[in-house]
Amino acid sequence: MRVTVDPPLNRWKLGAGERRSGDRAWMGPANDRPIIATGHQAWLWHPGILAKDIAAVEAGRQLGAQVVHLVVDHDTQDAMTLDLPVVCGEPGSERLDVATVELGHVQTGVPTGMQPPFNANAMAKRIGDAVQRIGANGGHIAVDSQPILSAMEATDGVATLAEQMTSVIVQLMPPIVGDVAFVNSSDMLDNDVGRALVQRMLEDAQCCVARFNDAVTTHHDAGVRALRVERERVELPLWHIAWEQPRQRVFADVSDSKPLLVNEAGEVLELADDHAKLAPRALLLSAMMRTWYCDLFIHGKSGG
Fold first, then answer.
1. Cβ–Cβ contacts within 10 Å for residue 261, how many?
2. Sheet of 95-102: strands edge to edge?
3. CA–CA gap between residue 198 and residue 72 (Å, rounded)
4. Would you call the peptide bond into 47 cis, given omega within 30 degrees of 0 as the criterion?
5. Cα dist from 20 to 17, 147, 259, whole Å
6. Sign of dihedral through CA atoms 228, 233, 234, 238?
7. Beta strand residue intervals within the chain, DSSP E
8. Is 146 within 8 Å of 127 (Cβ atoms)?
9. Predicted confidence (pLDDT) per residue in 32-87, tens digit
10. Which of 53, 159, 196, 226 could join 213 via S-S bond, C-beta 3.0 to 4.6 A?
11. H-helix or E-strand containing 170?
C-alpha cells in the first residue's frame, strides 16, 4: 500500500513533553522511543478514523516512534451500529448507498467501558440478515462482510462492550496498518500521574476551573461548556464512571477545610470499587495526552 501524507512527514515535529518513566508505563511500550498517539471512541468507526492510524504508523516508521491508539472507552455513544456500503440500482445506473445495521441496544448514558459485551453470534447474525435483505431488494454489499463477521465471532472472553468493539478493530486493522498498541482512556487517571493531577485540582479547584473557563472563553466557537462555579463547590473537568451507571459530573466540595470529591447530588464519591473510576473530560483528556503521554497526538478534524 502506498501512503501519501500531507503535510509531509519531514515537517512533523515530535515534542519533548513532560513525560517521565512512570508515565510511559501506562501507555504500554517498554522502550524509550518517542510515542505518536491517535484514537477514537470504541465503536466500528468510519475510514476517516482509520486514516489517522495509517498516518500515525507511517510517521512511526519514518520517525522511529512507537504508535499508540487511545480507546476513549469512558465516552457514551451508540457503539452498536455498523454502516455498510451498498451498491444499488439497475446496471449502468448503479449508485452507492449506506445501510445502517443495528447490532444491539446500548445502555443510554453509560460509557462503553462500563457495560457488558453483547452476544457475538447475535451481532454476526444481524449482519448476515442485513446482507440477505439487501440482496433481496436488488442490491449488494460493496465489501466482503466475512472478515467482520469472523472478527465478531472471535470476541469471546471480553469483559466490556468497549473491549468487544476494540477486539473487532484490533483483528481487522493489521492487514492495513500492522500492529498498533491499544490503551483505554478510563485508565488515564488510575496511575501516579493521574492521581497527582486529580489531587492538585481538588486542592486548588478554583484556580483549575478559572484556567479551564478562560480557555473556553478564548475559544468560544469550539462548543465547549464552561465549568460551574458555585458558592461551596466547583465543577471539575472529570467524569465519575461506574459499572452500568450513567456517567456523572464531578465537583470539588470546598465548604470545609478539606475539599472533597462529590457528585452533582453532593454525595461523596466512592472510588475503591474496581468498577468505579474517574475519567478526564474532553479538554483534559487532550491536554494529558499532549503533555505527558505522547510526543505527538493526531487529532481528527471532526468530519462528522
1. 21
2. 95-102, 81-88, 140-141
3. 19
4. no
5. 9, 40, 28
6. negative
7. 35-41, 66-72, 81-88, 95-102, 140-141, 181-184, 233-242, 245-253, 260-263, 276-280, 296-297
8. no
9. 788 999 999 999 988 889 999 999 999 999 999 999 999 999 999 999 999 999 99
10. 226
11. helix 161-172
